[in-house]
Design goal:
By secondary structure, this protein is an alpha/beta fold. The chain folds into two domains: 7-188, HUPs (Rossmann fold, 3-Layer(aba) Sandwich), CATH 3.40.50; 211-329, Rossmann fold (3-Layer(aba) Sandwich), CATH 3.40.50. It has helices spanning 20-36, 52-58, 77-91, 102-115, 223-226, 228-235, 244-248, 279-282, 302-305, 314-329, and strands at 7-11, 13-14, 17-18, 40-46, 63-68, 95-99, 119-123, 125-129, 132-139, 144-148, 155-159, 176-179, 211-215, 239-242, 269-273, 290-295, 308-311. The strands form four sheets. Strands 7-11-6-1-4-5-12 form a seven-stranded parallel sheet, with helices on both faces. Helix 3 (77-91) packs across helix 4 (102-115). The longest helix is centred in the first third of the chain and has 17 residues, at 20-36. The structure holds flavin-adenine dinucleotide (FAD).
């Protein structure tokens, strides 16, 4: 392991396109590789990977390996692990970075266990210090951050969605794309995906929206989410999100929960209505460029995090606020 070199990013693709998380990781990893003066490789696992290799080079990779096989169409840990075991054996990376996505959350600890090394999950920042990867991640439910490193090689980390900044894609970047064939051992495949149900999203997804209007327990029920919050989201061409209680109470689908156990968002504008601002909620929206809070409790924690705040009952504040925004954008 002493001769291990370079960074290996585990990229993700869907429907022949590189997912944004991969460009975010490559953007962050490019700086680390330059600092190490070692190569930045990327492996993309899936089926019908098309031009994803070229896209990964344009996003910063030096060499991209495409494990493109019909049997790898859906994420399944026993097949993806076989690809990763071969990749680690042949490429001998010093550092492996995945996204803190459904795939990365499952694959990183399994790979670390198999290799007898550690995995630092849900990192907010990655840096190099003394030739080693330093991983900053939230601890104590998002109330503090801690920096981890490890002696074992390869060092494995997952990077949180939106924590990395993609490079401006450069189609002229020099790089190589190569096929990475793996003879999958069928006897190791213990499960298969029978059906994939696409999440129905009307309008823009909260993780992609430039403006998010979040509602909390203080909304009092499901109606304001489809009326007052949706009206404001429509004017701002944004999306409606929620804290955990509205999801737990089935006022809104779980897919719009923001926070530690929900989605991570980093919009230009986050308007939090009737949300107290718990650390678990804030850990999902602290990347927002501007937070605006509407809450009737002047002591609510959200006001410590917000750039602008209105103390008052949302039933009074929100209609006037929405009317003003409508006037300004029309
Ligand atoms: C392991 C774990 C994971 C968790 N993960 C998440 C997560 O991912 N996301 C998440 O959000 N939470 C999460 N939680 C829950 C979290 O601890 C809080 O309980 C939750 O965020 C509180 O949601 P809230 O702010 O909507 O509700 P509350 O804390 O009850 O706050 C409601 C707010 O609404 C205000 N309000 C009430 N009526 C009005 C009104 N008419 N007008 C204006 N303001 C009003 C109140 O003043 C209050 O501040 C998690 C908890 C644990 C233990």
């Amino acid at each position: 392991m002493a001769d291990n070199k370079g960074i290996l990013v585990v990229g993700e693709a869907a429907e022949g396109k590189l997912l944004p998380i991969t460009a975010e990781i490559l953007g962050a990893a490019r700086k680390l590789a330059d600092e190490l003066k070692e190569p930045l490789n990327c492996i993309i696992i899936g089926a019908g990977l098309g031009d994803t290799g070229k896209a990964a080079v344009a996003a910063g990779a030096d060499k991209v390996f495409l494990a493109d096989d019909a049997q790898l169409k859906d994420y399944e840990n026993s097949t993806y692990m076989q690809v990763m075991e071969k990749a680690v054996a042949e490429l001998a990376p010093k550092v492996i970075i995945m996204g803190q996505t459904a795939n990365g959350r499952d694959l990183a600890p399994r790979l670390a266990f198999k290799l007898g090394v550690s995995a630092v999950m849900d990192c907010l920042e990655l840096a190099i210090d003394g030739g080693k990867l330093q991983c900053t991640r939230p601890v104590y439910g998002g109330n503090a951050k801690a920096i981890f490193t490890s002696e074992a090689v390869p060092q494995i980390a997952t990077l949180r969605v939106k924590a990395g900044t993609p490079l401006v894609p450069d189609a002229g970047r020099a790089g190589e794309v190569a096929a990475f064939a793996v003879a999958l051992d069928a006897s190791r495949i213990k499960a298969k995906v029978l059906e994939t149900i696409k999440e129905e999203v009307a309008g823009v997804k909260i993780e992609d929206a430039a403006s998010v209007i979040g509602g909390g327990r203080g909304m009092g029920g499901p109606e304001p989410f489809t009326k007052e919050l949706a009206d404001l989201a429509k004017i701002l061409k944004g999306a409606v999100g929620a804290s955990r209680p509205p999801c737990d109470n089935k006022w809104v689908p779980d897919s719009i929960q923001i926070g530690l156990t929900g989605k991570i968002i980093a919009p230009e504008l986050y308007i939090a209505v009737g949300i107290s601002g718990s650390s678990q909620h804030m850990s999902g929206c602290s990347g927002a460029k501007c937070i605006v809070a509407i809450n009737k409790d002047p002591e609510a924690n959200i006001f410590k995090e917000a750039r602008f705040g209105v103390v008052g009952d949302w039933k009074v504040v929100l209609p006037a606020f929405t009317a003003k925004v409508k006037e300004l954008v029309s």
